[in-house]
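Late entry, written up from scratch paper. The run itself happened at the end of the previous shift, but nothing got recorded in the book at the time, so transcribing now.
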Amino acid sequence: MKKDVNDKLKYLLKLLTMIFLITSPIFDMTFFHSRITTLIRIFIILVIFISTIFLYKDSRKSLKYIIIFYLLSASYLIVSYYHNKSFISLFPNNFNYSFISELFTILKLIMPITFVYSLYYQKLSKKDFKIIFISWSLFISLQIIITNMFKISLSSYSDILIKYNIFEWNKNIYYIESASKGYFTYANMTSLTLLMMLIYNFYFFIKDNFKYIILIFLISISMLMLGTRVSSVGGLLTLICLIICYLFFVIIKKEKFNKYLFLLLSVIILWILLLPISPYKNRNIELNKYSNVKEELFENNDVDNKNDTQTIKKEISKQEYIESIVNNDLIPEFFYKIYYSYEYDPDFWIDLIENTDESNINYRLIEEKMIKRVIKINNNKLDVLLGISNSRIQNIHNLERDFIMQYYAFGIIGSIILLSVYLIMLIINIIKLIKKFSFLNSINLIANILFCFCAYLTGNILCSMTMIIVYSFLSSFMIKENVVDLINLKC
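Output as recorded:
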């Protein structure tokens, strides 16, 4: 009787987990994305985790490692709180450190290990894995494609509706009015999710069923519509790389050749044909055009600027001097008037403008230099080990480079603790590949490396609940010993 009750509870837990996973992309849409829904998702993951421990006895064997991880994370939070109390800056509010905000961020960062642990011990079937993957692929790609065609999609680079769909792409349209992300909140997160979908649908296409070409086609079109670097170029390069990887195993490891491979070549050819007129390409054309105009202006004004600079500097205030020399196309007003105000630290902006080659100035460089300046003013050697807190960095300006961002926020110690799951998974994938040099293990390693690389390249990934769920789900199956049997799955 007790066993029957336990089996029913396990079934209910599995049902909750499946529903939670399948509906996950919905909460990355602008209608539902909020701090409240993020807290709800964290709560559900914790409920799944606690329920797994109670219902699966074998999960308790390794529980001590999770407890140690939680204790280390909690200890870091407390130590960093006292460390940040002594923080000083040139700004009156010291960028408003918030313990609640730090707690919230750290809660999100410990979710991957928590969810991977739960999914691993729940032992979802391979069929469950594919059901979730297919649902994610269809929901995300079809929403982007349909909203693009009817011109009711949000732009990937703003919150306005697009004006041009895929049938109206040409080299002269404004990329902001053609790149589309459906109703998803962030284009970069959606791009990376689709990239992961592309990788594993490729595997299923090769090893399971040629009908997965439909999903690959839908994902490819939607990635071109998104118009980001990761989706447009990264997706194409990844698909080519996967084909080369597969052919390597066919030639070297004598794996059976899939006669339907030519279907993938047709997708690549279509991708290459559409890329030159895609929103991504239009964005590059526009940026290059702006860069050429900018260089001409700099060349024409260079002599006059050098002659006038010293005279102007002596006659006006530092703030007025900054306004007279700054190029607002390169450094918009919100950087030096709002995020890191020249009212409190004009010397920083004068040094940045005068001593930085304008051809090298971009948002990420400005963001990182502002954070480095704040750390330099604070002049606390422990900042390297414990960071200056995520809440302070967000109140200065979000640094769009994951891993670098966490290094400044949490220091070396905090980053090692809170981001350990990514290193652990990388080591696990390398060990699995060494032990069994298989196509699937290669795919797993490629997916893991690409996830981390894209997070570094685009930022705002590691603290996204949607990406945490996607990564956790993939990771839980990467470490299953019987995952190689996926090739035998019939859906």
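Confidence is low (pLDDT under 50) at residues 289-304, 481-491.
(Scratch paper discarded after transcription.)
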